[in-house]
């Protein structure tokens, strides 16, 4: 499929750990879709492979009903099995020949990066888009895995493929991303960790339209 930039506007990255008790993942994702997310990424590293496969089937069907892309995080085999629209992999896992041999040439590949060097390599190797982060607004060095807004800007400056900022982003954080050069926002707890998932997604979508 061809990647359309508007599909990256607001990516919902699933986060079972932050969801309210007794809410099924499919129902939570449907709330997020109804709130306006433009893509769904299934990212549940603690789930057993067979359970993850079942969730992927459910979400692929749901996203198809709403005509938005469904992306699998890291599990290339599951992406192929459920006919996902693409995968997102860590930069150290990005082996384009291997991935393309499994999912073909017409599905999206996103790559997780945090530095300009990683971004340039991923772009050179054939990534369709980058997910850069986790971004921490007001990054003070206490969380070494996070990157600052300035570091995000430096990634955007060296590539000519779309860059999505991701992390525990909520409304107040997203406003600080204006002018960084990003093409989209990826949110996990900022959507799924909220009491009203649909409204949280709708609010983030409104802000993303203003800043992108």
Summarize the structure.
By secondary structure, this protein is of the alpha/beta class.
Structure description:
The chain has helices at residues 25-35, 49-66, 76-81, 96-103, 116-124, 149-157, 171-174, 189-192, 197-211; strands at 10-13, 39-42, 70-73, 86-90, 108-113, 129-132, 163-167, 184-187. It is an alpha/beta fold. The protein has one domain (5-211): TIM Barrel. An eight-stranded parallel β-barrel has the order 1-2-3-4-5-6-7-8, surrounded by five helices. It is globular and about 40 Å long.
| CATH architecture level-2 label | Alpha-Beta Barrel
| Strand order of the biggest β-sheet | 1-2-3-4-5-6-7-8
Output the CATH class name.
Answer: Alpha Beta
> What is the radius of gyration computed over CA atoms, rounded to a whole number of angstroms?
16 Å
Helix content: 25-40%
Q: List unreliable stretches of 5+ residues.
A: none
The chain-level mean pLDDT equals: 94
The fraction of residues in strands falls at 15-25%
- CATH structural fold name: TIM Barrel
**SSE sequence, one letter per element:** EHEHEHEHEHEHEHEHH
Provide the CATH superfamily.
Answer: Aldolase class I
Number of domains: 1
Can you tell me the overall shape? globular
Q: Oligomerization state of this entry? A: single chain
State the distance separating the first and last CA atoms: 23 Å
**Alpha-beta classification:** alpha/beta
Count of alpha/pi helices: 9
How would a crystallographer describe the biggest sheet?
8 strands, parallel, barrel
Count of strand segments: 8
């Amino acid at each position: 499929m061809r990647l359309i930039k508007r599909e990256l506007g607001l990516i919902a990255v699933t986060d079972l750990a932050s969801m309210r008790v007794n809410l099924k993942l499919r129902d939570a994702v449907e709330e997020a879709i109804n709130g306006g997310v433009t893509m769904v990424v299934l990212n549940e590293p603690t789930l057993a492979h067979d359970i993850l496969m079942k969730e992927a089937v459910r979400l692929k069907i749901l996203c198809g009903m709403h005509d938005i892309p469904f992306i699998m995080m890291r599990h290339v085999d599951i992406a192929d099995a459920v006919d996902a629209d693409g995968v997102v992999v860590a930069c150290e896992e990005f082996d384009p020949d291997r991935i393309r041999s499994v999912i073909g040439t017409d599905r999206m590949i996103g790559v997780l990066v945090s530095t300009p060097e990683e971004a340039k390599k991923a772009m050179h190797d054939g990534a369709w888009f980058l997910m850069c982060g986790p971004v921490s607004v007001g990054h003070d060095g206490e969380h070494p895995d996070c990157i600052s807004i300035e570091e995000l800007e430096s990634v955007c400056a060296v590539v000519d493929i779309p860059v999505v900022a991701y992390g525990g982003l909520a409304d107040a954080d997203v406003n600080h991303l204006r002018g960084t050069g990003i093409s989209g926002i990826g949110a996990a707890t900022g959507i799924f960790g909220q009491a009203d998932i649909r409204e949280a997604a709708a609010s983030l979508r409104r802000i993303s339209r203003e800043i992108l």
